[in-house]
Amino acid sequence: MFFLTEIEHRLRLPPKLLDRPLEDAIKGELESIFLDKVIAKTGLCVSMYDIKSIDGGFVLPVEGAPTYTVVFRMVMFRPYVGEIIAAKLKNSNKKGLQLSLGFFDDIYIPAFALPDPSHIEPHDDDPKQVKWVWTYNDLELSYDDENVIRFQVTSVDYPPIPLEQEEGSKPFAPMVVTGLLNSDGLGPISWWV
To answer: Where is the RNA polymerase III subunit Rpc25 domain (predicted)?
Structure first.
């Protein structure tokens, strides 16, 4: 789920930061550029781990600021296919469930990946949402907001950036994790205690 990746980046350091120690100034700039951003095919940047090297410091013509080539390592989030993860329910609709890890909300469980037979019921609190219920023998087991849900990752996708977005559409997600719940031990943890 979490791993280190090495990145090489050419960084222009603003003159206002030149009074700070070089490594601290560069680390602050790299964090503002990379943290909470998704790098395609790599994952979500979670934390700066360390700086391995800083080269350069050249002031290019008409720039007025030094440019450095920095090699550093970042802690990245990218689950692997087949990994079992526990997350909280964020949203449910006719298409399935949306789960959240707190720092990452683009986890989707499509309706066909829920245990069979599952059906929809009206949500008690919110008329815009629905509640998914799994019928197991004579039991009606529901996916509730307070439950932690264990799911298995089936894919991690990096959709292309849209040129235009329709008004009222959901925000663009640069990384989407898809999972399933139709296997033993998956679903709300309270089901399996």
So the answer is: 83-192
